[in-house]
Fold this protein.
Amino acid sequence: MISYTIWSEAGGVGKTTMTVSLAEAHRRHGQRVLVVDMDPQDGGSTHHLGADAERGDPDADNLVRHLIGRPKGAFEDLIVNVSDGLDLIPSHNMLGSLERNLLRAQELEEDMGGEFEPERQLRRVLADTDIHDEYDVIIVDPPATGGQHVYNAVYATSNLLIPLELSAKGRQSVEGLRDTVSGIEDALGDVEVGVLAVVPNRVSNTRTQREYEDELDEQDLPIAPVEIRERRAMLEGAWDNQVTPYEFATEHRSRRRDREIETLEKFDELARFVSAQFGVELDAEVATA
Ligand SMILES: Nc1ncnc2c1ncn2[C@@H]1O[C@H](COP(=O)(O)OP(=O)(O)OP(=O)(O)O)[C@@H](O)[C@H]1O
Ligand SMILES: [Mg+2]
């Protein structure tokens, strides 16, 4: 089972874009993919994949109800089928009060002599519903803020993939990376967090960016063998049309643009790189044919 959380404590660095693009790349290799959107904001993968119909309905069953042990229905019924091989557990506004809800659930449970570990609930819910038999890949897209969203995501997936901007902001987040990872490990107790890759994003080869890149090379970090170039037109087009970048570049354009196809191939290479770390070798030919 390939499972990872795409996260950086820096906001707007491409977590959601990478979630959607990698999910699509895995799917195109025939892997069955589940994306879990844990970002309470409207701008996460649920929106990107065009599935946010029920997010504002306070009565709707949603992930948080399951995490606090008060579901309104079967967990399977939360799953939205986006396309063949790609499913999504959509975001809901209730994720905005996830932390409070989890702590209240913990109090109630402990008052009754039970035990409830707030950071372990996503893992529990996924394990209880045998989700691991149904999917080959699980990707979680949490918000940039630390806390229970990320704790639950990391406890459930054990691995991180980290998008990085080659900028002062990016440098700061990388410098803090080891502390952040060990902070998460401390908070979770018995889990070792793997960093699958740090992926440079929005690369445009300016001199400043190349300087940051040189600096990065000197650090002992698992830098991905792939970087994602600045591709605003394609990625914003994909957002605006609520489709994956792959779909946008191949179906919404009047003609294919080489640079865009090249970037899709990078996402594909990244999906292969990630899969290989789980012992799964994907065929290089599928790419963007
Ligand atoms: N390689 C890229 N080239 C150009 N634009 C990009 C690239 N990657 C991401 N973007 C754009 O940057 C913006 C932020 O990306 P995205 O929403 O994926 O970041 P995020 O890390 O998920 O943000 P948040 O912290 O709000 O969850 C989007 O408009 C997206 O289209
Ligand atoms: Mg996001």
